[in-house]
Amino acid sequence: MIVHGAYAVEPWRVRETELNLDVLAQSESLFALSNGHVGWRGNLDEGEPHGLPGSYLNGVYEVHPLPYAEAGYGYPESGRTVINITNGKVLRLLVDDEPFDLRYGRLVSHERVLDLRRGVMERVCEWCSPAGTRIRVRATRMVSLTQRSIAAVAYEVEAVDRRARVVVQSELVANEQLPPSGGDPRAASVLQSPLRPEQDFAHGHRLRLVHRTRHSGLRVAVAADHVVTGPEPTTTVCESHPDLARLTIGSVLEPGQKLRVEKFVAHGWSSTRSLPAMSAQVDAALVAAGDGGWARLADEQRACLDDFWACADVEVDGDEEIQQAVRFGLFHVLQAGARAEQRAIPAKGLTGSGYDGHAFWDTEMFVLPVLAHTLPEAVAEALRWRQSTLPAARERAAQLGLRGAAFPWRTIEGREGSAYWPAGTAAFHVNAGIAHAVVHYTETTGDEDFERDTGLELLVETARLWRSLGHHDHRGVFHIDGVTGPDEYSALADDNTYTNLMARANLLAAARAVERHPKEAERLGADSEESASWRDAAEAMHIPYNAELRVHEQHAGFTRYQRWDFAGTRADQYPLMLHFPYFDLYRKQVVKQADLVLAMYTCSAEFDDAHIARNFAYYEPLTVRDSSLSACVQAVIAAQAGHLRLAYDYTAEAALMDLEDLEHNTRDGLHIASLAGTWMALVAGFGGARRAGGTLEFAPRLPEKFSRLAFRLLFRGRRLRVEITRQSAAYALLDGPPLTIRHHGTPVALRPDTPVDRPVPPPVHRPAPEQPPHRKPNTRFGPGKRTAGVTRRGR
Ligand code: BGC
């Protein structure tokens, strides 16, 4: 938990008002900058102290063996883990020969700001060296959203009250030493010195290092250029070694004088390009970045963010913490996906090495739905990445004796990285998640080229998987047995309702796509006979239901299991998977994360209001939220079922997951799905937004703490703004042709420049469901709640 960190609650910034080394690693994740291609954790410029140094290039990994006590057919033999590439952030400083190190001397003040509109991290601090020389450091850092390979730092040192001899060492550091990992199995295993040097170069203000990973054979090139401004004489010397390139800048500053170093860092990697080609690539990127310099990069960054916020901003009146958190979350979702360009969007983005840098279903089910309405081109790119990994997914399906494609549960480059079968590879639902994202994207954008060139193939191959994974029983009913749904406290279950409903949607979407694109389908070998078999399976899909309890079963037989002994489980025994054997979790009614409840959101048309209310009331007391992917989904359904206070508390949990380090692992990287889930909780929860085929529906209702909620979204070439108060909702079409949406079931025709107001009906009152003891979300309704304008201090 960020127990000591002081974060001001401001609408457009995350401002840390003092530095606390105990929570340095957490703050490095919060202040991470990325564009989806390059990721820099918020490490201090001087490199030390650090919690977890992190510089990543999306797609750069190293291979390591996956040892098994007992081998089994189809187990992945090797794993892949994200590694630190050459660190270009480092700017060490010496003041009268003493290193600027915050652990020594006196730190007079230290402030860091993540500016969500300018897309930069700023740091201002004043430090008094052990010998009494006072300096001020002002550093601004960015990872460019417009120049994909570029990150940059503007670093300024000022002498405060006496003459100071300062030396700045701007470095590129490869194979940086990493602290040992804490033993949490979810954190990345440490791979020391994964880079083999190939080239080092230093000339003038230019530095370059090229390395190759030992086992995965990826070539990584990082180069830097500098613009130095200081009083005469300011001198520079450069040097390079296999793992280090350095520009040393020396100057003598009178009080009030400054030395400014602008550092531009270019990154590139390739599995195929030669050493000269990679060197040339990063050099060229530096020339492009240098042209126009820092000012142009900063202007482009601001313009890019202005465009994003014009389509994506969410305004919340009545809770400043949630206001800040939703923008913080959207900013990180943007950073994770903006320039990933046919690479994965990992569960932690590029903010840390948690989960070994792997991507899961989190991407398609949590992140892409948000991007589809805010930055749709990023969704197309992420799905094209999935398409590019089809060869590995087909191979995996064949290995498992299945048809079509079996996409991996966790991966960096497309191959299965899960060493664990029950809660890993058996989670076939990831495939339906990919299909869901394809349908959501095409229906949200109307991008037919994408459907034909990418969507169709993904739909066909995943439909084939479902058809071969399931079977018709003697009565013709279609079952998908022995799979793991989203709830990882049930495994190898028969007919997981979420999986079956999602597979049904997948099969039907594939059949429709084949009809729409017969020529392309033929090339994939898909004909009307095959698509008819998908329809048959979809129509005969078994959806387990307990008629006595009148609730849907999470999977066949789930409701007859023994209930978990919640009363006998202590607060410190959560998360359960770290304190109880899996076999016992598997055979009891206990739910790690929204599963059936998620189905009610993603397959909303399959459930009427009465079932939504009853199912929610049934699963709430069983759901322990041992995954950060749960709260946002529970928020959406709680809101729909009329439990607005509960929905509000869940929204806050999703929103503050990292700002308050609620799962105690923010140090390893941010929970990108939960951050995206904040948008989901607000827009789909309180806004009641659902996509119904080619149209949008809203059923807004605000919790009592919100006086207003406004959001923008993109839909089929239009930009919409929805503004909700407790009494009414106003719909405005900001750009694009007329559109008819629905408000609480009634059609509303929207024309440009003519906002339409509709009254918000009161919610149906139902008794609030219970959660397991110790697992209620923190309530935001009690006394002592922080209010507007306060400084955030961890709970
Ligand atoms: C959750 C998965 C999720 C993964 C990565 C696990 O704890 O149970 O659903 O995909 O974390 O976020």
Automatic annotation (TrEMBL):
Chain spans, region Disordered: 742-795
Keyword Hydrolase appears in the UniProt entry: yes
TM regions (residue ranges): none
Record's compositionally biased regions (Pro residues): 758-771
Domain Glycoside hydrolase family 65 C-terminal: 690-750
Domain Glycoside hydrolase family 65 central catalytic: residue ranges: 327-680
Record's keyword terms, sorted: Glycosidase, Hydrolase
Annotated InterPro entries: 6-hairpin_glycosidase_sf, 6hp_glycosidase-like_sf, Gal_mutarotase_sf_dom, GH65_N, Glyco_hydro_65_C, Glyco_hydro_65_M, Glyco_hydro_65_N, Malt_Pase/Glycosyl_Hdrlase
Residue span(s) of domain Glycoside hydrolase family 65 N-terminal: 16-270
GO molecular function, one term: hydrolase activity
Superkingdom classification of source: Bacteria
Pfam family, one: Glyco_hydro_65C
Family under the similarity heading: Belongs to the glycosyl hydrolase 65 family.
Protein name per its UniProtKB record: Glycosyl hydrolase family 65 protein
Species the sequence originates in: Streptomyces thermoalcalitolerans
